[in-house]
Design brief:
Elements: H1 4-18, E1 25-29, H2 33-45, E2 49-53, H3 56-66, E3 70-73, H4 82-89, E4 97-101, H5 106-115, E5 119-122, H6 127-145, E6 150-153, E7 156-159, E8 164-167, E9 170-172, H7 176-187, E10 192-194, H8 195-203, H9 211-225, E11 235-238, E12 242-245
Parallel strand pairs: 1-2, 1-3, 3-4, 4-5
Antiparallel strand pairs: 6-7, 7-8, 8-9, 10-12, 11-12
């Protein structure tokens, strides 16, 4: 039986071979021609196929009809707000969405992520950073669609079927809340998760404002999985928004 690490390597090897003939498809939804041009050139040079939409309705239509592997979405669109685009797409698709917007307020970031965006990048942006986040989003999509019951992230191995978590091959024991919290992070590797999302998932819809609960359990979880809890490598704080779990295996 393959280990999770070997399975993950095999998935990416198969993807690399497949990319020789079939390129992953990125949908760019932005009303600025210059932004679409820059992204189209950069994505094409990175071996992606690019679809372009200049407004929100066209973005929703292309998502439904062309099934892109990932969406880069502006919020300030000429017809409908990008927040509504996220909401409508999430009614029928789990395609990763990276918001690319001039809106830098924490409230906008939190709202977009709560609606279902996977990541949020503020304009003006570094194209190399955006491409890295696109690659991360695509890798996480592949892992989430695979049928594996064991997921490896760095030295952490999470076995969903046996409900066992190991760190450097040694089992670690988590409280029920710590287990469900880590499981939600593992299922959303690489994605920014808001405080409200975590609280709703682990504590229920009535506890979305109880941020102190979350801080206590994040601190406890870091004590168990981080080599230096005060300088975490796995569970990263996204200031004012939430947290992101980094997959150190990739």
């Amino acid at each position: 039986m393959w280990t999770s690490h070997l399975l993950t390597k095999t998935i990416f090897k198969d993807l690399s071979r497949m990319n020789a003939t079939v390129r992953q498809r990125i949908l760019v939804v932005d009303d600025e021609p210059q932004i679409r041009k820059i992204l189209s050139i950069s994505l094409d040079s990175d071996n992606y196929d690019v679809l372009e939409a200049y407004n929100g309705r066209e973005g929703v239509r292309l998502t439904a009809t062309r099934n892109p592997d990932l969406i880069v979405l502006d919020l300030g669109l000429p017809d409908i707000d990008g927040m509504l685009v996220i909401k409508e797409i999430r009614e029928f698709s789990k395609t990763p969405i990276i918001v690319l917007s001039v809106r830098s307020d924490e409230s906008d970031k939190v709202q977009a992520l709560d609606l279902g965006a996977s990541d949020y990048v503020t304009k003006p942006f570094n194209i190399r950073e955006l491409l890295a986040r696109i690659r991360s989003g695509l890798r996480d999509k592949i892992l989430s669609e695979s049928s594996q019951s064991t997921v490896t992230a760095g030295d952490i191995e999470f076995d969903f079927s046996k409900r066992i978590v190991t760190l450097k091959k040694k089992r670690i024991y988590l409280s029920p809340k710590e287990y469900y919290l880590l499981a939600f992070f593992i299922k959303n590797l690489g994605s920014v998760i808001t405080h409200a999302q975590l609280l709703k998932e682990v504590w229920g819809p009535m506890c979305t404002q109880e941020h102190q609960y979350l801080r206590v359990y994040i601190r406890a979880l870091r004590q168990k999985i981080e080599e230096t809890p005060s300088q975490p490598k796995y569970i990263i704080t996204e200031s004012g928004v939430g947290y992101r779990m980094v997959n150190l295996s990739l």
